[in-house]
């Protein structure tokens, strides 16, 4: 089994790249908002603890299947804000003997602000449809968190960084597929 974590800052294109990668591989997709949106809908607010438990449940059940693998997305903060949670996700797959792959995406803030209002993002992420609030959140989080890893911070051999500022999502997906032989 393969576990592909696509990570990067807000609106960098994680979900869109993951969607394209799922189209050209046998990998299933569980992007971050597939856990966020139901929790907001059911509980009326973003609740990180419930979202984390939901993701852990999905991953724990997924590793019991015969599926080829899964693509997940996350805003992995290298400032210590959520790395313990991300490593808990990795641990679920490592214990099951899965191969771990990390893809780190980067794009300029200007491009991410434009992507923050893209049709695909708003279609799949209802909580982002208040684009003014979403823009403010992106700028605020950018000022407080670091989403770009430094040398040695991602402890997996299968790790690649891609600046996708000027790359189409399908091109990035093909790069990932080729690099990791998916």
Could you give the topology of this structure?
Elements: E1 2-8, H1 14-23, E2 28-30, H2 33-43, H3 48-62, E3 69-74, H4 83-95, E4 99-106, H5 109-115, H6 119-124, H7 131-144, E5 159-163, H8 169-180
Parallel strand pairs: 1-3, 1-4, 2-3, 4-5
Helix pairs in contact: 1-8, 3-4
Q: How do the SSEs run, as a string of H and E? A: EHEHHEHEHHHEH
Query: How much of the residues is beta strand, in percent?
Result: 15-25%
Query: In this structure, how is the largest beta sheet organized?
Result: 5 strands, parallel
- Give the integer mean of the pLDDT values: 93
As a whole number of angstroms, the C-alpha radius of gyration is: 15 Å
Q: Strands of the largest sheet, in order across it?
A: 2-3-1-4-5
Unreliable residue runs: none
Helical percentage: 40-55%
- What class do helices, strands and sheet pairing give? alpha/beta
Report, as a whole number of angstroms, the end-to-end distance. 11 Å
* Overall spatial form: globular
Number of strands: 5
* Helix run count: 8
């Amino acid at each position: 089994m393969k576990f592909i974590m696509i990570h990067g800052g807000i609106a960098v294109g994680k979900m869109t790249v993951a969607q394209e990668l799922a189209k050209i591989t046998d990998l299933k997709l569980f992007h971050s908002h597939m856990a966020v949106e139901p929790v907001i809908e059911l509980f009326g607010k973003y609740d990180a603890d419930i979202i984390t438990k939901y993701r852990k449940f999905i991953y724990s059940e997924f590793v019991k299947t015969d599926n080829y693998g899964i693509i997940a997305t996350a805003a992995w903060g290298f400032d210590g804000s959520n790395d313990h949670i991300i490593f808990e996700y990795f641990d679920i797959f490592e214990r099951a003997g899965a191969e771990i792959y990390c893809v780190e995406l980067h794009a300029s803030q200007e491009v991410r602000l434009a992507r923050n209002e893209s049709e695909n993002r708003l279609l799949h992420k209802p909580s982002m449809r208040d684009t003014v609030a979403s823009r403010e959140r992106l700028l605020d989080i950018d000022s407080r968190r670091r989403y770009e890893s430094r040398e040695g911070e991602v402890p997996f051999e299968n790790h690649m960084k891609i600046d996708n500022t000027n790359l189409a999502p399908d091109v990035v997906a093909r790069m990932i597929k080729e690099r990791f032989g998916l």
